[in-house]
Amino acid sequence: MDELPLDQVRTLLAVVDEGTFDAAAAALHVTPSAVSQRVKALEQRIGRVLLMRTKPVRPTESGQVVVRFARQLARLERDARADLGIADEQGPARLPIAVNADSLATWFLPALTRVPQDPSVCFELHREDESHTTALLREGQVMAAVTSSPDPVAGCTARLLGLIRYLPVASPGFAARHLTGPLARDLHDAPVIIFDRRDDLQDAFVRSLSGEGTGASRVRHYIPTSEGFCDAVAAGLGWGMVPEAQAAPLLRSGALTTLASGRPMDIPLFWQQWRLDSPALAAAADAIALVAAEALRAPA
Asked: Has this prediction a pTM greater than 0.85?
């Protein structure tokens, strides 16, 4: 095998994006039989199964590599057309980025406003936990991600953006009702707010206090939005780890109180992106790094 036929690579990408062979055929204006033949030919050429024939279809690990290559190829082609002054019938440049909810609710959107819009750039944000955003990079679904992982995904670069600080907080009324004794003991029983079932931050904080592996209480309220999470803590539904930027005004107003002064948790955030010479991606990376330096804490 000395090359990957581009029509076959683009067809594989269409099948993954559209979810079925029939939908990909409609998008490509060819027959479903032609789509199936191209995918099979590509699999035979590579010598590996690239798609799991489920509904919707899913790329295998090898398929993810080819899909990522196809997206990078499309990005390079679009940039080359822009540099040559050739009109792009597909419209503005599209930048799919994975970002965690707390960054999205605090510092990330102002960073996007600093990205030059000549030519136009359309952002497609995928909200995911910072410890899982690299999975979207690995699968080729996004071109860049804000992540807690310093280890670059294959074909990507990584750089530290800064530290996002979380404070253990609760409403004064909640603290008076539930947190009257030793904090490590009380937090084993007090209701707690959790973002989703991947969120380990509250458990990690309790373990850091107690030195044990039991974590926070089993009385858990799942609030899967950053703003809703903060509102639930302020309303007295439970305690939680709230980003410093969101907690600060509520602490000043007295709506929240800190549970353990001097015991914040700092989570490093990294920017990972495809190793690709794309002006739009480079401009976005520069703007995001600049705002992150202003909004996040610098490593000690």
From this structure: no
Secondary structure of residue 270 in the 3-state scheme: strand
Pull the structure tokens for residue 199. Answer: 């969120």
SS3 content of the chain, % helix, strand, coil (to 5): 45, 20, 35
DSSP secondary structure letter of residue 261: T
Do residues 180 and 187 touch, judged by C-beta distance below 8 A? no
Q: Which of 127, 97, 101, 90 is nearest to 112 (CA)?
A: 97
- Residue among 190, 191, 166, 195 nearest 180 (CA): 190
- CA–CA separation, 52 vs 63, rounded Å? 9
Q: What is the mean pLDDT of residues 50-71?
A: 89
Quick one: how far is CA 22 from the chain centroid? 30
Residue with tokens 């989703």: 196
Euclidean distance between CA atoms 89 and 81, whole angstroms: 10
